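Run folding on both entries below.
>entry_1
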Amino acid sequence: MSRVPRCLLTLALCAPLLSVQAGQASQADPGVTQPALTATTAATGLPRTPEQLATTITLADLAFRVDPSRQRLDGDASLHLRADRPVARLVVDLDRNYAIVSVTVDGMPARWSNPEGRMTVELPRPLAAGAQATLRIAYGGHPHVAKKAPWDGGIVWATAPTGEPWVATAVQGEGCDLLWPCIDHPMAKPLEVIERVTVPSPLVAVGNGVAEGMEERDGWRTYRWRARMPDTYAITLNVGPYELLEADYRSRFGNVIPLRYWYLKGHRQKAEGLFAEFAPMLDFFEETIGPYPFADEKMGVVETPYLGMEHQTVNAYGNDYRKSETGYDWLLQHEFAHEWFGNQLTNVDWDDFWLHEGFGTYMQPLYLQWLRGDMEYMAALMKMRSVLMLRHPIVAGRTMTEKDVSDAGRGPGNDVYYKGALMLHTLRGLIGDAAFLRATRELVYGTDTPRPGNFHPRFASTDDFIAIVNRVTGKDYGWFFDVYLRSIQLPQLLAERDGSTLSLRWKTEGDKPFPMPVQVRVGDHVVDVPMAGGRGAVTIAAGESYTIDPHSRVLRDLPWMADYQRDMAERARAAARP
């Protein structure tokens, strides 16, 4: 998800969601004391050091040994690094609570230090621009345990309903350094990743990308996976008594996409129902946005002991096969959206997180409109509108960590999802479907004519998207994004009727320009009001009624919505009193 908000829209109701399915335990071994994370390890997206900025991980060859009986993880990571600029030492991020077994550079022992979770490794000699080196780190210990994944990061040690160990990871908020030595920043994706995951037989280990075989020896199985350019927090471990549903999907673009779902033993019937939803969701995204970005690997999903996460090509699914009146599984669809908005397109900084979550969330009502029509589309948007928080701007204009954004106490929190989605609905109505979808495609693929094989994973910022919208439309829409993304409060549309004239005026936070056109129903017809300079007027005959924005195209301040939210909050507080 991105992590889903604690009260993610189900499109039927908004209710607290549990991170662990009923009947499974997820807790640390009571005999193991979990040390605190350092501030560096607990954050993801901190500014990179000069050494990290100067290096690219061309290949991360990661070997993991997962021992559920001891709740232990042993890792052996070989990072093939390229110096893009001269560099005198290497710096990677790794939780200091692991015991380091060895550190070598090109096979030779190296001096290192890791006081705060940002490991510095001395080089025998500086690397010139273009030079390469292999940093190998062997480590082990008890990985940080998530208390309520995915809202806090770490590993989940659980037990499947049939009694076998069930293990999964989710590290979006804290970052890849909880599991392996990485450069813990959105812009630091490895160009390629190999995962070799060793688990007790007969458990199955499911990973990112393409399966390259399994070897079994002495009661242990080693599964090998290979992925290209996965998002740093999307590299995952999934271990359990899994069974597999598989099929091949012929895309509207002519290529064949492997569909794979690893489900828990005993869940076959429910799993088949979920698996049947893969193809229509894939068709929607390919028709609406463009080609599935990882078609040469797989569209994969794995059942997990927590709600969900957009792990590239192997999305975590833990919604317990809940049914909805919408007729599809919202969690499956939301995480799948992130293959485009999060994995193919990755924000350059967590301050641009709405590019993942605003777009990812808007894909749900858009899918409903594609499936069912306008009524369910508008109903879904209304649910979103009722839970806006409006305490912080979506975009702060400075470098942010993930928790700076997702923690509603210090950042926009759920507004990244819902205000972002509602803003996109408004943008679509403002510039039209053709321009909106073209701008979205160019944001995701770097081209308006994506075809399998003619695009690569991309990074983008808020300003990049604004520039695309301006170019596609031939107009400057900076004012639109300034009010919706960089302001806290929604614009107010003030209306005053004087005789036969209805005067309209936009009022914005800081009096920012906002020439947003609006529609007004007057009697039995709809009038378009340009609102040049943020003002406009409509002539209304005696006895005629009117409705402002009759088709709900514009996200704006609604006083009655604030009254509703206050009332609901007061009732919740009263119900909580003893």
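>entry_2
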Amino acid sequence: MPSSSRRTVVLALASTGLALAAAWLGARPPQPLRVLERGLEDQMVRLRGRRPVPQSVVLVAIDDSTLQQGAWFADQSQGASPIPGWAEGLSTLPWPRARYGDLLDRLGQASPAAVAINVVFEGPSGQGPADDAALAAAIGRQQGRVALAAEIMEIRDTSFVGLSLAPPADPLREAAGPGGIGITNTLPGGQGEAHPHPQTYSERILALAGARPQKALSQVALERSGRASRQPDARRQLNFYGPEGSFERLPAWEVLDPERWSNHPKRSLIRDAVVLIGPVGAQGGAGTVTPFGTLSGLEMLATATANSLLGDGLQAWPAQPLPRGLLALAPVLLVAALALLRAGLGWRLGLVGMVLVLQLAGAWVAFDRFNTWVPLLVPATALVLLGVLYGGDAYLAEEGERRRLRRTFERYVAPSVVAEILSDPAAAEGILRGRLLPVTVLFTDLKGFTQLTNARSGSGEIELHVRQLNRYLGEMVEVINAHGGTVDKFIGDAVMAVFGSPLGRGPQAEAVAALRCAAEMRRALSRLNATWQAEGLEPLDNGIGLASGEVIVGQIGSPRRMEFTVIGDKVNLASRMEGLTRTAGASVLFDAATAELVGGVLPVQRLGEQAVKGMGKLPVFTLQTLPAG
């Protein structure tokens, strides 16, 4: 199987494996992923920012200012001024229950739709039956508009775990009437879990425990106002409107003070509103951590009530594991399938980016406009990993191509030239495919080597003969590489080299380098001959021919055997020039084009016209002296 086809198959299998892993994790995410997903949802909530709150939900807060006001009146009462009845017991929690009755009476003057008290009045009042009676009378005066809080308590002993309802004291429960009690229990959010609507506790947890379902306080408050929830509360999570204080809020003492309340600028907000009473601040509990910071229990109750009233609680979609898995699987498979149409990295990363942007945009629209959270972490991460997979595949493919090109060119040119070629792989491919280049071609051949070969073959000195030839060729190759030439091929004892291919320094520079190389090759052979004579070996002699001009450069051959070489008339001419060295009385000969290129740099000597086989008579040149290498 071709390498590219094999890579395609491997990439397709890896993409499919990634898609299946995304499907599995999306359908049944482990706890760490759920925590990260919840963190991402919280970030989206913060990015969206505050949302408008319904004006029909108003808070009456037992806050620090109310407690401080009660403390101030308590201090004043130690002097000549008596403490007003409405301020008695305000400085500390729990309050006398009669104060809540006072709150109900003051609020009743402004005609609220309903009032919910987020305080559990379990058991008789510690201040006596009169305290309960005062609150019960106030509840009765509201004519069925009051919702009281109850709490489900967990009972544990050595052999039993159960649930028990802690309702308000009997007089209060009777005053509230049927359907006037709502539980305040909620399921804690965080650590990978959403903040569920309080009704979830009643319909799910109590049902699982086999207990009779109870309505949440927020739902009872809506029913008492004559309204109904516009959403299935038990299947929704809280959709926060902002940080603490987002809802309209009145300090409780401002409502309790008759003079202040009669002219209060926000009194009109109470009319037909659902009013929620409860403690906030330092003495109101630690609160609940949300994307907008810590919210008090009263603010959480207001959020649940407003979500039910507007029907804008958050819902997770899809809810079942199988659709969630398909949601994570689909974008990865889509990109993987489209990526097979084209092999370019840009195309594939473009697909990943486009689908990722569409996914993020769709999730944002669903969240911001439709209050729907679409699982985003696993699908988005899978797409990013798919992009990394494509990038890694492209990198490996490029590295493989670079290695192939390096192996190809290292057979022909010096390592420094290879590095320069590989700096632009696209250009390197162009070189291999073929192009027209101005070069100087150098041929060198040993004189009388055929006769020497026959003689040594007859005397059994073949190994000695090959060793001497290899040493000669090795020395010639070193000289050629040192002068920036490319060894094109060996033809027996002949060497063909090219200057200006695959990269050129300019026609003149290449011609000069080729002639300097020829001079150095002659000097190198002289040094070898001195060594061989000392070893008792016969010296060798060579001729060198050069020609300059345009040739075709490329990788030529059959699919089973390719060679990077040059072809053209200048190749033949260089070979003919080398052949003339046997009769022209010079060891280095070159053509007129080469002479013209180097004439102003090297000492050129014209030898007149010589008959060149197959080309007629041509001017032939040599060097007056051998220049330094």
